[in-house]
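for the recovery benchmark. tokens below, seq after
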């Protein structure tokens, strides 16, 4: 029976240096031999997912932007973006708080370097990685194409509470540790993307599997019939998963695939 298997990227497929264990690559190869569907399921928006590093591993499709975008065999199946007037309103609100933030879309990422602390290397690292796909927010307010956003830094707890109160009616705020918050329109998360893809492919729920390591994987881990948390992942992910495997560099994906008979 053909299964659909969904993988987070960061901390699950690869480490902070984008290194992928050979055992993970071997697990993907064996799953493809068995005829299973393999999907990336990432908080990253589509523009921030490097095809050359990941697609040759055998992925059939991509769920990106925490369920706001889906593609199968290179064809876009859905994309839910935030209305321009709404993201303009949010942009002004984030500026009023003095937040450091990045707006994320299908084609571009938007960031103003001066909003980040002077000792932060994040803006430079993102600019080097994204090149012409990284634009400034300032000057592009009338053409913002965004499906989610992240607040990377907010300098006091009162402002953080104000942000959550203001955004709560329409957005889910995912705390990723420290001051880092990932913010997604309500009604969208990794599980909704999985639902759409599985409905399209007529994959029964009992044949769904997910692998993740952090708080933005919780919906996915709780939704799929079978779920795996990486042994070096966040405790919240381990609590949500059906099975906790070994760490990424201790053959975590390969051993979990063996455990479930996927290879």
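predicted aa per position
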């Amino acid at each position: 029976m053909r299964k659909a298997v969904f993988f987070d990227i960061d901390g699950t497929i690869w480490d902070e240096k984008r290194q992928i264990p050979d055992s993970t690559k071997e697990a993907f190869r064996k799953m493809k031999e068995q005829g299973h569907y393999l999907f990336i399921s990432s908080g990253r928006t589509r523009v921030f997912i490097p095809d050359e590093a990941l697609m040759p591993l055998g992925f059939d499709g991509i769920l990106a932007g925490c369920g706001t975008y889906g593609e199968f065999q290179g064809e876009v199946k859905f994309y839910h973006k935030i209305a321009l007037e709404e993201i303009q309103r949010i942009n002004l609100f984030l500026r009023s708080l003095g937040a450091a933030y990045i707006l994320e879309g299908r084609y571009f990422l938007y960031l103003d370097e001066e909003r980040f602390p002077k000792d932060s290397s994040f803006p430079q690292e993102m600019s080097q990685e994204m090149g012409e796909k990284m634009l400034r927010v300032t000057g592009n307010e009338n053409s913002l194409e965004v499906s989610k956003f992240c607040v990377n830094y907010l300098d006091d707890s009162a402002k953080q509470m104000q942000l959550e109160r203001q955004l709560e009616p329409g957005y889910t705020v995912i705390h990723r540790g420290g001051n880092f918050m990932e913010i997604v329109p309500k009604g969208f998360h990794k599980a909704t993307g999985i639902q759409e893809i599985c409905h399209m492919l007529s994959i029964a729920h009992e044949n769904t599997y997910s692998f993740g390591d952090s708080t933005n994987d919780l919906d996915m881990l709780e939704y799929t019939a079978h779920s795996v948390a990486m042994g070096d992942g966040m405790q919240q992910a381990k609590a949500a998963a059906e099975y906790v495997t070994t760490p990424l560099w201790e053959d975590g994906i390969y051993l979990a695939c063996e455990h479930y008979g996927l290879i």
